[in-house]
């Protein structure tokens, strides 16, 4: 039973956790935005930007950790831009989000081309190496899979805890949850709805960008066009699947990555008649299925997609 | 900051708002061109000449505008009903796949029948693709933005499979491309020594037709009512689900027709790069046009011109042609903003 | 006005919205431990004035003093800081959050690493006890009744140390008995030295709770006097400006039954009962007024007659014909004219022109379309005719409806339904938010339709309106309907008792009593 042996292999679990990392960042980021009432469809482009700028920073001689912050900074920049349109101006979040994706993607490609003119094969950098956690990484299978990862993966897991704590245990988190439910309730307490939402969108976008950066400075060592390849959209689906809860988002991302890891292994192992393109379709089809399964239970933040305009009721 | 609705929007404001927005975009993108070290004025001249400066350039711009008019119309119709169809790219490929399936020898009809036949099967394929998200939206309230986006990837992988597998043209020397469309199905050339083909006529007629549909018919009234105020539409006795399904079929069909014009007109066979994102660019085209079907023609020509012009500018000035994508995306955002400001007034206090 | 120490002084407050002067140089003051009632018709400027005091709007002129300190009120935070609390007309609560979370929102600095739940609970307990406002702090707000939600709003203000409490039309959503309970709480608060501004347009309440009265009309303060000098007649006269004759309802013999409801029951998706065995006949030449606190089943009943909801049980007949399929279009075809509760929401398509809105229900008829094509000239002609007939001011056929005033928007809806000469008219809150002139117009049109032979079901929260135009009155409570009563035989007090559930079978559980 080759299929079941797979689940005993360290490689499988290790791959699952690695592949889950960008999804965790992206899903957390989108979750923060949506909890504040703003759908951020800029995610796909912001992840692309994060991937590009982080890689470029390292390629130009910068440090890996600095690159993470550079990615986060650019994520915040585009998050701020999205806020101008969706929060302050109250425009359709669907269309402005797509606009931000188109803009951030094309700007990244343009900048890449301008900074590296005439390059045909993408140059490489030295990415993050695994950081085995002493002792813990010696635990068979679980430890080996969980505690022998890129430092960014640890950051992703810690971020889930941090975001959950902030959302549910701090005054700021309470305000963020409230502004996605009923912005007027926040406004009447003298809290600036626009600033709060903008802040949430910027922080969320920073997470997305770091998720993108993970591709270029951790798993791979180069920047390719189209490398995000719809993972941003998958994160949007995962947020709904997770019912806007950080813990479930982590679970969803892991589940998803596990499916992906299975898919790759089956694809490699079997001499099946199924062409590889159909395996590659799986993540997208799973996402759609996840949306269908959750459709009856989805409890949207009540003010999601509803623009807030001061002085109107 | 407060936004106050304006009671009346003068006509001059409606017309000038998108133009002003585009001018601002061109000024802002000037910064990017300057960053590339190219002379600004000369670059924009090169862009303009490359877009509209010669018979050949003009013809190429029209060729590029043809699918953009269709994907722009697809977005304009859907967005009017607040059906957020971001799946134009996938629907386009469905049209292209249908054209290849039926148009490369499976069926042979005289051209007067073959060409309409290809448009019809293409439109049906695209319409059916959008029907899935539309049904999920109406039956299960699944958000159509995510589903249409995800389906784009599924369809592209399907095309990838077909072109690397069963549909691969053995005469194409290993390139992943489909068999050529039979002569009866090829859209006739309009101007000798250019690539301009009858797809342009089709897209212009489609724009006129959609304009009539939206403004002069019961269906158009229903689509606009559902998009503007779903509750009032339902209260007045308009079936929301029926209207959304109908809109989806029209929108998906229009985007798919862009696939037909590309396979049966521009390229004459299917490849995987048949659309450089026409489906997504169609959203920008529609928003630039304020969702007006006739204005879609102008905005598609503008964006097609930017893309063609950017190609020749990049050759002449060493500025990456991704500048065209930047201009398109920035125009989308700023035109939305400027159109809103014709309806609202900002008050600082 | 009063001798007590002044806690709030408003001087020469002016606020303009475009050409409209919402507040015109308004001055008044509030004494410690006093209740000031701010009265006025809809649109008189009451809410605007309170929003200025609370910091939502910035005044164009004038100034405000709270406890002797100048209030710039750029944001509600400043007003809260000086001890002003406000209970808004529309609750500002988050449904999926707990009572406690709603109350403590914004009371601690965002820099704080941890919300002090324990301390907050203790403080809330103490406040609940002190003012007799019991509430479960861990309940989700969406599970509360309207009265409980209001309690949360009051606790929210007290939690922030409010010494001045502004209540904007607090009784609009309450039964008379719940209102009485609220008044007890307010009296209690006043006796402890708090001060209250109470916004209302219900004279009875004002007479029972207020110490001082201020009346607004068209943005101006037209009168201010202590309660001892007031009478209902005097206040009414000040509010309206000139005495308006109630509409004349000529006696008519009732005709055949147009709407017959028999044992109608409706449940929502979760099986919660919305309507319970409702039976009612509406005849030609009569207006049936339906009283009741909003949220007691008026909405599902009105949806049923509008065709947007189907009953699970019972028979529904129109002019004797049994209706099986509930569809808005079918209802229109069967001669039902429907005025929806919320004009903006269901009545009109805001971005559509007047002419399009006027054919929204019958654009399918051969008069306005053939083979899918609309007849533009017929639609325009139709609009011109109705604009003249119904005196829709400031409107051309091409005008977008969004820019019309509430009264003219309502005229568009009335024109749309009345020109079809419907046999049955459902008018759900047709005068809500309209000024006196526009409301009178609506009443006249309904009475005209009654004379013509239509049967009318008028749903309203305004008892004075119901008493003035109805032939018979029914009361809706928890999805049940009282027996119809001749208007001559019934008093406002009786209606109030019925509205609070007196005389109705008690509901089996709280769950089933919750109606949309």
- What do we call the CATH topology of the largest domain in chain C? Rossmann fold
Q: If strands are numbered along the chain, what order do they take across the biggest sheet of chain B?
A: 1-2
Largest interface: A-B, 48 and 49 residues
CATH superfamily of the largest domain in chain C: P-loop containing nucleotide triphosphate hydrolases
The total beta strand count of chain C reads 23
Q: Proportion of β residues of chain B?
A: under 5%
Helix content of chain B: over 70%
Mean pLDDT reading of chain C:
88
- CATH architecture verdict of the largest domain in chain C: 3-Layer(aba) Sandwich
Q: What is the overall shape of chain C?
A: globular
Helix amount of chain C = 25-40%
How does this structure look, described?
Chain A is 69% helix and 1% strand. Chain A is mainly alpha-helical and 313 residues long. Chain A has a single domain, classed as ABC transporter involved in vitamin B12 uptake, BtuC. The relative contact order of chain A is 0.20. The radius of gyration of chain A is 20 Å and the shape is globular. Chain B is mainly α and 349 residues long. Helices cover 72% and strands 2% of the residues of chain B. Chain B has a two-stranded antiparallel sheet. The longest helix of chain B is centred in the middle third of the chain and has 30 residues. Chain C has 3 domains: 235 residues, 3-Layer(aba) Sandwich (Rossmann fold); 182 residues, 3-Layer(aba) Sandwich (Rossmann fold), CATH 3.40.50; 72 residues, Helicase, Ruva Protein, domain 3. In chain C, the strands form 5 sheets. In chain C, strands 13, 16, 19, 20, 21, 22 and 23 form a 7-stranded mixed β-sheet that branches. A 6-stranded mixed β-sheet of chain C has the order 6-7-8-3-9-10, with helices on both faces. In chain C, helix 14 runs parallel beside helix 15. The C terminus of chain C is likely disordered. In chain C, strand 7, helix 6 and strand 8 form a beta-alpha-beta unit. Chain C is an alpha/beta fold and 516 residues long. Chain C is 33% helix and 25% strand. Chain C is globular. The longest helix of chain C has 17 residues. Chains in contact: A-B, A-C, B-C.
């Amino acid at each position: 039973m080759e299929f079941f042996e797979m689940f005993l292999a360290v490689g499988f679990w290790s791959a699952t956790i690695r592949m889950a990392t960008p999804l965790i960042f992206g899903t957390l980021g989108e979750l923060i935005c949506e909890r504040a009432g703003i759908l951020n469809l800029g995610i796909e482009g912001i992840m692309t930007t994060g991937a590009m700028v982080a890689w470029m920073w390292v390629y130009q001689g910068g440090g890996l950790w600095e690159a993470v912050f550079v990615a986060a900074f650019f994520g915040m920049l585009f998050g701020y831009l999205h806020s101008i349109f969706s929060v302050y101006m109250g425009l359709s979040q669907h269309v402005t989000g797509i606009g931000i994706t188109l803009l951030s993607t094309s700007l990244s490609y343009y900048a890449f081309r301008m900074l590296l003119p005439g390059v045909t094969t993408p140059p490489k950098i030295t990415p993050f190496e695994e950081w085995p956690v002493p002792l813990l990484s010696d635990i068979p299978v679980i430890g080996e899979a969980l505690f022998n990862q890129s430092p960014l993966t640890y950051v992703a897991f810690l971020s889930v805890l941090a975001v959950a704590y902030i959302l549910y245990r701090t005054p700021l988190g309470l305000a963020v949850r409230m502004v996605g439910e009923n912005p007027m309730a926040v406004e009447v307490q003298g809290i600036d709805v626009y600033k709060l939402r903008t802040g949430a969108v910027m922080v969320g976008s920073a997470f997305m960008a770091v998720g993108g950066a993970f591709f270029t400075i951790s798993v791979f060592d180069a920047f390719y066009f189209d490398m995000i390849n719809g993972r941003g959209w998958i994160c949007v689906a995962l947020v709904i699947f997770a019912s806007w809860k950080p813990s479930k988002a982590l679970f969803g991302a892991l589940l998803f990555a596990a499916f992906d890891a299975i898919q790759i292994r089956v694809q490699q192992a079997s001499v099946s008649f199924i062409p590889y393109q159909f395996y590659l379709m799986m993540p997208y089809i799973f996402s759609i299925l996840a949306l269908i399964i959750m459709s009856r239970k989805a409890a949207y933040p009540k003010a999601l997609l509803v623009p807030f305009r001061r002085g109107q009721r | 900051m407060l936004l106050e609705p304006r009671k009346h929007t003068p006509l001059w404001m409606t017309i000038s708002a998108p133009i002003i927005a585009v001018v601002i975009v061109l000024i802002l993108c000037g910064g990017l061109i300057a960053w590339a070290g190219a002379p600004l004025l000369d670059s924009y001249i090169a862009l303009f000449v490359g877009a509209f400066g010669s018979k050949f350039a003009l013809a190429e711009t029209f060729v590029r505008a043809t699918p953009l008019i269709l994907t722009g119309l697809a977005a304009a119709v859907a967005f009017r009903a607040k059906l957020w169809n971001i799946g134009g790219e996938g629907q386009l490929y469905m049209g292209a796949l249908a054209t290849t399936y039926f148009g490369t020898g499976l069926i042979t009809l005289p051209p007067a029948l073959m060409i309409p036949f290809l448009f019809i099967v293409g439109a049906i394929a695209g319409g059916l693709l959008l029907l899935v998200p539309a049904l999920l939206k109406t039956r299960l309230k699944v958000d159509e933005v995510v589903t249409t986006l995800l389906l784009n990837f599924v369809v592209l992988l399907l095309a990838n499979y077909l072109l690397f597998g069963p549909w691969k043209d053995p005469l194409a020397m290993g390139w992943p491309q489909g068999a050529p469309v039979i002569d009866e199905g090829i859209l006739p050339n309009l101007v000798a020594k250019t690539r301009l083909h009858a797809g342009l006529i089709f897209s212009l007629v489609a724009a006129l037709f959609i304009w009539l549909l939206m403004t002069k018919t019961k269906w158009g009234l229903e689509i606009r009512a559902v998009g503007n105020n779903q509750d009032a539409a339902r209260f007045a006795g308009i079936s929301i689900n029926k209207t959304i399904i109908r809109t989806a079929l029209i929108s998906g069909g229009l985007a798919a027709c862009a696939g037909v014009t590309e396979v049966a007109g521009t390229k004459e066979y299917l490849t995987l790069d048949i659309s450089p994102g026409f489906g997504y660019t169609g959203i920008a085209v529609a928003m630039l046009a304020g969702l007006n079907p006739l204005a879609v023609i102008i905005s598609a020509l503008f964006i097609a011109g930017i893309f063609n012009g950017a190609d020749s500018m990049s050759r002449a000035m060493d500025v990456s042609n991704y500048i065209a994508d930047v201009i398109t995306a920035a125009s989308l955002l700023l035109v939305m903003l400027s159109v809103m400001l014709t309806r609202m007034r900002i008050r600082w206090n | 006005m009063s001798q007590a120490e002044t806690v709030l002084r408003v001087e020469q407050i002016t606020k303009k919205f475009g050409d409209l002067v919402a507040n015109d140089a308004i001055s008044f003051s509030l004494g410690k431990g006093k209740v000031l009632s701010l009265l006025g018709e809809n649109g008189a400027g009451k809410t605007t004035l309170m929003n200025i005091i609370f910091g939502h709007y910035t005044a164009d002129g004038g100034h405000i003093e709270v406890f002797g300190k100048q209030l710039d009120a750029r944001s509600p935070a400043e007003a809260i800081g000086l001890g002003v609390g406000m209970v808004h007309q529309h609750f500002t609560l988050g449904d999926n959050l707990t009572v406690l979370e709603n109350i403590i929102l914004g009371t601690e600095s965002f820099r704080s690493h941890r919300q002090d739940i324990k301390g907050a609970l203790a403080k809330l307990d103490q406040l609940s006890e002190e003012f007799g406002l019991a509430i479960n702090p861990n309940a989700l707000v969406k599970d509360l009744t309207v009265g409980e939600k209001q309690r949360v709003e009051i606790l929210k203000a007290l939690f922030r140390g409010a010494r001045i409490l502004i209540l904007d039309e607090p009784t609009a959503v309450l039964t008379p008995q719940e209102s009485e309970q609220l008044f007890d709480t307010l009296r209690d608060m006043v006796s402890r030295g708090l001060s209250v501004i109470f916004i209302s347009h219900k004279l009875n309440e004002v007479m029972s709770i207020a110490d001082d009265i201020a009346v607004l009309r068209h943005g101006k303060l037209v009168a201010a006097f202590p309660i001892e000098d007031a009478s209902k007649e005097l206040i009414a006269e000040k509010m309206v400006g000139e005495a308006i004759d109630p509409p004349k309802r000529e006696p008519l013999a009732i005709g055949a039954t147009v709407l017959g409801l028999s044992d109608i029951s409706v449940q929502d998706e979760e099986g919660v009962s919305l309507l319970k065995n409702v039976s009612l006949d509406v005849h030609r030449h009569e207006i049936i007024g339906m009283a009741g606190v909003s949220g007691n089943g008026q909405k599902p009943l009105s949806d049923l007659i509008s065709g947007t909801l189907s009953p699970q049980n019972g028979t529904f007949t129109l002019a004797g014909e049994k209706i099986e399929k509930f569809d808005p279009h079918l209802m229109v075809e069967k001669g039902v004219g429907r005025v929806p509760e919320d004009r903006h929401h269901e009545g009109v398509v805001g971005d559509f022109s007047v002419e399009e809105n006027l054919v929204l229900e019958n654009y399918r008829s051969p008069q306005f379309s053939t083979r899918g094509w609309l007849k533009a000239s017929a639609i325009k002609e139709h609009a011109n005719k109705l604009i003249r007939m119904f005196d829709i001011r400031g409107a051309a056929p091409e005008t977008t409806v969004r820019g019309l005033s509430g009264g003219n928007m309502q005229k568009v809806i009335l024109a749309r339904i009345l020109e079809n000469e419907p046999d049955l008219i459902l008018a759900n809150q047709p005068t809500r938010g309209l000024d006196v002139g526009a409301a009178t117009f609506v009443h006249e049109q309904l009475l005209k339709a009654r004379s013509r032979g239509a049967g009318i079901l008028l749903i309203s929260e305004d008892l004075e309106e119901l008493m003035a135009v109805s032939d018979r009155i029914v009361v809706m409570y928890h999805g049940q309907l009282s027996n119809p009563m001749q208007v001559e035989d019934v008093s406002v007090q009786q209606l109030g008792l019925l509205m609070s559930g007196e005389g109705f079978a008690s509901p089996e559980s709280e769950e089933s009593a919750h109606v949309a």
